Amino acid sequence: MSATQQNRVLADIRKQYSKLAPTLQLAAKYIIDHPADFGIDPIRTSAEKIGVSTYSLVRLSKELGFPGFEEFRDPFRRALRSSSKPEISFGWLDELSALGATGTTLANSAENSLSILKHSLRQMTPEVAEKFIETLTNARTVYVTATSTSYALAYYFQHIARLVLPNVQFIPRDMSNPIVDMNFANDKDVLLAITVAPYSQITVNACKYAREKGMKLLIITDSNLPLAELDPEAVLTAEMESPYVFACYLGVMAIMESLLHLLVIAGGDQAAKNIISYRNLKAKVDGTSPF
How far apart, in whole angstroms, are the C-alpha atoms of residue 79 and residue 8? Predict the structure, then answer.
């Protein structure tokens, strides 16, 4: 989505404007007149500026055919991002590389990072992404596992995903073998494994064990081929090329962030409530503001 889709939404608002209730017309007029502000502001801020309730904005979203407010606002947010893209250009990289040896290194690193993000996300087709989300949301229990560097990324994914899917578990729980934690799993459960070359035998064995138990298997990796014999439900592959000795995990992180975004959308209003509740509780416990 970009400015093109934003314009389509605005055209649809104009087309349906006369059919809307007076309160919704007020909100619609504001959005037409202030699309950038609408794309930036939280729902409460927009409601206050317009002089309507947040419920009116949710109603308008549904009147226009969107599942909820966030989906309605999304084209406006993306249009803002699209308009800022020229700031990140090869010209910027050229200027950076002209600032001595460190600048050259930073430019090379930045160019590599952008390339990794592009190639990793291009391979994340809607069909595969939807298969991931469908499998995760329909599972009785989702087990997430990884080793080595991927371990921290798997923990991060579980930490956020559990706000939407409380049945997500990170394994191994006690630094032992993940197979132990799947002892009571069955065909209603899912294993999400994250592994890249050199592929951890512990993770591969966990995948094989999951298959023996009849569990569904999802994999995030750097290649479809080495793990094809495991016959997973779906695989997402990340680019891992790096200008330094260790592999670059930006692609894996980008894939996980996209999955988390889709999970939150799939979770609907309840997911949003869970996230707000968590932020408020954390702020209360930590003694900081939730905003």
Answer: 12
Task: Quickly name the fold that domain 123-281 has.
Answer: Rossmann fold (3.40.50)
Contact 160, 170 (CB under 8 A): no
**Annotated domain spans of the chain:** 3-83, 88-121, 123-281
Sign of CA dihedral 253, 255, 261, 266: negative
Structure tokens, 154: 């798997």
- State how far the Cα of 161 lies from the Cα of 168, in Å rounded to an integer: 7
Residue 115 burial by CB count (10 A; 0-12/13-18/19+): exposed, middle or buried? middle
Q: Which H helix or E strand runs over 249?
A: none
What are the backbone dihedrals phi and psi of residue 57, each rounded to the nearest 5 degrees, phi first? -70, -35
14-24 pLDDT, tens digit per residue, is: 888 888 999 99
CATH of 3-83, one of 3.30.70.260, 3.30.450.40, 1.10.10.10, 3.50.50.60: 1.10.10.10
State the pLDDT at residue 113.
84
pTM of the prediction? 0.65
Which of 114, 182, 152 has the alpha carbon at shortest distance from 256?
152
